[in-house]
Specification:
Largest sheet: 5 strands, parallel
CATH architecture of the largest domain: 3-Layer(aba) Sandwich
Strand order of the largest sheet: 9-6-5-13-14
CATH topology of the largest domain: Rossmann fold
CATH class of the largest domain: Alpha Beta
Number of helices: 28
Length: 741
């Protein structure tokens, strides 16, 4: 909203420039950087530099760079001071106050800057009445020409929705809210990953081990995620066991020192000391791959695994007592261990014990792995020939996942206008590839259709080559993304397409955009990848494959419980009913998760910390929600808002700063929409809440309900405008705005 006043200030300054004999300029104005001072500022140095360059062109000709810089520096400094003084003098000498310029009260020249101060009463009245009168539409932009599609969330069916998935969902949803509010026609799109090897693995595990197990509707989504994780762990059991043993041999010289003791104990306890065990231990000690065909006893490896745990537990007890331990210098046995050796810590030993517990719990899986891997191949072949029973199971379980996802979206306040799926674009994508080959855009390379993007664009080693199908004709992600993007451009007639996908896919998406450009789609120039980094846990990265996740449902349950405890602590008087407390706790939990995902730069990782997300004091949703609830409470106690014009006089610095922040909201929305940065709004609502709390904090200096007029009406109007702006900003993030907390 301040843009209106800045535009007026630009007109005034350009009018003075014309009076001084200079041409009108595209001026860059900035808010006055002084708390409690309200206005806009112009640095005259760029103008002075242009004027000096034009007026002294002949004089500067032939000077060396050093001489030119020295000569220019003094002249520009002198001209900037002269120019700032002249502009301020003429503005104060009669221009201000004329022709509708009453919103600007005075001008001053300070070290080459021209500061124009707004008339606080005029502008405050305009800003606050606009925010209150426009209500939920305050900050909304005018209709824009471009149609935007934001594709986000894109979860894989047959996997559980974990807390990390909420970052994508929160980013895409907030961006769609913002672009729509800014005036763009916006389409929200989702894209189910409903086919692929992860689906085959999940269905195989369900059919093979859980088909007769009754699953309640509420747990269907969770169970599918568990079956996928179990499938991966079964199929990779041998690989994971050998991986742990090799890791210990490579990274834990203390463990290698104990190998002789382990051999002795195996012989004493189980009478095992055959050639296969000796071979196995030798390969591990010397960091060589294990040839499973050379093992006489198939259970040799899991039998060895049995003795790994006690050794790791001894290490853990030792480092807990004595602190982190560096491995000793190499001996003949540990000569091949990588040096300098890593430190044995509580963290890495605890993580290895957790893996050992999981692997040691199912040694009977070891001999089954080859047969299971063959069953996966058979299941995939059944899928390829569209086996009726398998397809029916896929359709049923696919819907289980989608129903669960929609339940979560509803809880988070997320909606979609269109939902695509990999299964529906696969065949059409394959036909597109053949068409691209016929057109000469794609070519055959080692039996695979590929696009040499650099060759087609006349570039060198920038976009490289992208395969579009495997040599056996099966599809790739690129196959399906070509058809998906074609549908966006042709079926929905969009002008801008935004993909919310993690940063790892950045280069791949640039390749897709360029292929669409080569294919002839003008919209490819307005494709944008909104990338983001992962959500991590204190113990490291999350992984559905390894079952290292915090499920969304578990996180939300824990956050509701903790939020309820906080709400009860803040309301010991029984003013709120139990039902109301539960409702508020739910709003706080949802807001906390969403705001955590939006309040960090999307190119940085987020460590999921429940206490941090639920903070009423820090950069978190509850702090902002509480400011909104506090404003609601003040207005509730006040009753009716002032009727008629409100006089804004003797505004204090905290009040001016708060009004200015409210006035900035429409421009913040525009910036967030054009830059595709929800973080702009997340930061804005936090700053607005902080300024409101600063304004509210000093009851003695700034009473509200008990203030005399006109201060009471003035401050109540300010509270009402703040409440409305907070609500509008939080709505763009889909963060609930409770009226009481």
């Amino acid at each position: 909203m301040l843009q209106h006043y800045e535009d007026r200030a630009s007109d005034l300054i350009n009018g003075v420039l014309e009076e001084l004999g200079y041409e009108r300029q595209e001026l860059q104005l900035r808010p006055i950087p002084f708390s409690g001072s309200w206005g806009t500022s112009l640095a005259s140095f760029p103008l002075a530099s242009k004027i000096v360059a034009a007026e002294h062109a002949e004089e500067f000709e032939g000077l060396s760079k050093k001489e030119l810089k020295k000569r220019q520096s003094g002249l520009v400094r002198e001209k900037s001071l002269e120019l700032a003084d002249a502009i301020a003098e003429r503005l104060n000498g009669g221009v201000i106050g004329q022709n509708g310029a009453s919103a600007i009260s005075r001008a001053e020249s300070v070290n080459g800057y021209v500061n124009l101060f707004f008339d606080t009463s005029t502008v405050a009245t305009d800003v606050l009445r606009t925010a209150i009168d426009q209500g939920a539409d305050y900050g909304r932009g005018t209709q824009r020409a471009d149609k935007v599609m934001v594709e986000f969330s894109q979860p894989n069916t047959h996997k559980a929705f974990h807390i990390g998935h909420t970052r994508n969902a929160a980013l895409g949803n907030a961006l769609a809210n913002i672009t729509e509010f800014a005036g763009f026609e916006t389409i929200r799109a989702n894209y189910w990953g409903d086919i692929g090897m992860h689906v085959i693995q999940c269905l195989w595990c369900y059919q093979s081990f859980h088909k007769d197990r009754r699953i309640t509707r509420k747990l269907r989504g969770r169970r599918l995620g568990e079956y996928y994780t179990e499938a991966v762990q079964r199929l990779n059991y041998r690989k994971d066991v050998l991986g742990l043993l090799h890791e210990l041999a490579e990274d834990d010289a203390l463990f290698v020192e104990k190998i002789d003791a382990i051999v002795t104990e195996m012989y004493r306890e189980d009478g095992v000391c055959g050639e296969d065990v000796a071979y196995l231990l030798g390969q591990i000690a010397n960091h060589r791959e294990i040839d499973e065909d050379k093992l006489f006893e198939p259970m040799s490896v899991p039998m060895l695994l049995k003795y790994v745990g006690p050794q790791l537990k001894e290490e853990l007890a030792f480092v807990r007592e004595h602190g982190p331990q560096e491995a000793p210098p190499p001996t003949s046995r540990t000569a091949n261990v990588r040096y300098p050796p890593p430190v044995v810590t509580i963290e890495n030993t605890t993580e290895r014990i957790a893996r050992w517990k999981r692997l040691n719990a199912t040694p009977e899986w070891w001999p089954e792995v080859p047969e299971w891997q063959q069953q996966i191949k058979d299941t995939f072949q059944a899928w390829e020939r569209k086996d009726e029973e398998l397809v029916a199971l896929w359709e049923e379980t696919r819907q289980w996942s989608i129903d669960e996802f929609h339940r979560i979206y509803d809880e988070l306040g997320i909606r979609f206008d269109v939902e695509f799926s990999e299964s529906e674009v696969e065949e059409e994508g394959r036909q597109i590839v053949y068409d691209l080959v016929d057109r000469g855009i794609a070519e055959m390379s080692d039996g695979m259709p590929v696009v040499d993007i650099d060759k087609a664009l006349g570039l060198e080693d920038k976009y490289r080559t992208l395969p579009l199908l495997r040599s056996d004709g099966t599809t790739l992600y690129s196959t399906k993304d070509l058809e998906l993007t074609r549908r966006k451009f042709e079926d929905f007639d969009i002008d801008r397409s935004i993909w919310v996908i993690d940063n790892r896919q950045g280069f791949y998406l640039q390749q897709i955009f360029k292929i669409m450009e080569l294919w002839g789609f003008d919209q490819a120039e307005k494709c944008f990848h909104l990338g983001y980094e992962f959500v991590t846990l204190p113990e490291g990265m999350m992984s559905s494959r390894h079952g290292i996740t915090v499920l969304y449902e578990d996180a939300m349950k824990a956050m509701r419980k903790r939020a309820l405890e906080i709400i009860e602590e803040k309301n010991p008087d029984g003013r709120l009913s139990d039902e109301k407390k539960e409702d508020i706790a739910g709003q706080v939990a949802v807001g906390s998760i969403l705001y955590l995902m939006l309040s960090r730069d999307n190119n940085t990782q987020i460590a999921f910390d429940m206490e941090e997300a639920l903070s009423f004091q820090g950069h978190a949703a509850p702090y902002i929600q509480y400011a909104h609830a506090r404003a609601c409470r003040i207005l509730e106690r006040a009753g009716e808002l002032p009727d008629g014009p409100v006089e804004f006089v003797d505004l204090q610095p905290e009040e001016i700063d708060l009004i200015q922040k409210i006035a900035e909201f429409p421009e913040e929305v525009t910036q967030a929409a054009t830059e595709y940065r929800p973080l702009v709004i997340a930061d804005y609502v936090f700053e607005l809440a902080r300024l409101f709390n600063d304004f509210y904090a000093d009851f003695d200096a700034r009473p509200i309900l008990n203030a005399d007029e006109p201060a009471r009406s003035m401050r109540l109007t300010l509270v009402a405008a703040t409440r409305q702006t907070l609500e509008n900003g939080l709505a763009l993030l889909s963060v609930p705005a409770p009226t009481v907390m």
